[in-house]
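Ligand: S-adenosylmethionine. Inputs:
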Amino acid sequence: MRSAEPTIRQKYVDGLYAAEDEGLRAIRDRLVSAGRWGINIGANEGKILQFLISLSNAKKIVEIGTLFGYSGVWMARSLPADGHLWTIERDHEAVRQARKAFEDCGVVEKITQVEGDAIDMLNELSPLGPFDLVFIDANKSAYPQYLEWAAKCVRPGGLIVADNTLLGGHVAESEKPESLSRAQYTEMRRFNDLIANDPRFFGTILPTDEGLTVAIRR
Ligand SMILES: C[S@@+](CC[C@H](N)C(=O)[O-])C[C@H]1O[C@@H](n2cnc3c(N)ncnc32)[C@H](O)[C@@H]1O
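Predicted complex:
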């Protein structure tokens, strides 16, 4: 969960490298009004996603967890003309808000919104693969399941990116903290162990405020 008020350091970095335009600011305003600002990525993570998409020439991306489309707009803007983003969300109001964001930001043609539970929807998307990049940003307790899907459906050399993998720093504690459910704590630790030790992956956690895992599917 990001705080609404960025630190001086964040302001400096975002101002230099990840300034929001009117479209992104409008999504931010709607998230704040709905009391949901902070569960989305920050502007600098948006820029990191754009950097990774450009670096890897990603054309086919799956996002798990659309919310109001903030991260989706950042990613779609970095896709080439023949690139596409499939983004999964189970909350109908969020799907509606994201649709408006994608239209207003001029990226709607590059995006397919997939409404439903992520595991079911990922299985439906599998035949469209292999994908170049998956961005995992939904319920934390299912991250290892999403990673298993990515292992099958992301091409060798493709990227797996996941937000919140430090769980606000709590993932490093030896006992589960009160603020987290048992499943959130144990499954996120399992996800991080898999990225670290499973030979199918090569990656690390970028130490952003929330922790952003970046990994290659070998
Ligand atoms: C952290 S927010 C996504 C933020 C978004 N990626 C951004 O940065 O703008 C997580 C979203 O995942 C959705 N979600 C959680 N569990 C889900 C599931 N099992 N299937 C589909 N969507 C899910 C929630 O409704 C929520 O909108």
